[in-house]
Write a structure and sequence with these properties.
mainly alpha, single chain, two-stranded antiparallel sheet
Length: 109
C-alpha cells in the first residue's frame, strides 16, 4: 500500500517542528495533524500539490510503498537517505569550505 512519508522529507530538511512548519505554510491545524498522524487513507490532489509546493518536490518524493515486498511496486522503494547534517558530520573545515564554495557557484560538483 502506498503511504505518505512526510517524516523522511521533514527529517532531510532538518525541520524540528513539523506541525508548526506546515501551519506556517498554509495548512490548518487540523490538516497538519491529519497529515502527520499517518492515519490517512486518501489524499486529495489539491493537498498533494500543496505539499509538493511546500517542499519543492514531486509526489514520488512524498510517497513510499509499505506493502508486501513481492508486489511489483516494492521495486520503487528508495534506500534510506541521510539528512544533510548526517552527510556533513565529521567533515573537516577545509572540506566544508569547499562544499560551501561549490554551492555558491551553483552546485556544480
Amino acid at each position: 500500500m502506498l503511504r505518505l512519508n512526510l517524516e523522511q522529507i521533514l527529517g532531510l530538511r532538518g525541520i524540528k517542528h513539523p506541525h508548526t512548519y506546515l501551519i506556517m505554510h498554509g495548512l490548518t491545524d487540523s490538516q497538519a495533524r491529519t497529515l502527520l498522524s499517518e492515519q490517512m487513507s486518501q489524499i486529495k490532489m489539491k493537498r498533494l500539490t500543496q505539499l509538493c509546493e511546500i517542499f519543492s518536490c514531486t509526489p514520488n518524493d512524498l510517497m513510499t510503498w509499505n506493502g508486501p515486498p513481492e508486489h511489483h511496486l516494492a521495486c520503487l522503494i528508495c534506500p534510506e537517505t541521510k539528512s544533510i547534517t548526517q552527510l556533513l558530520e565529521g567533515r573537516s573545515p577545509n572540506e566544508l569550505r569547499a562544499i560551501s564554495r561549490m554551492l555558491e557557484e551553483g552546485g556544480r560538483f
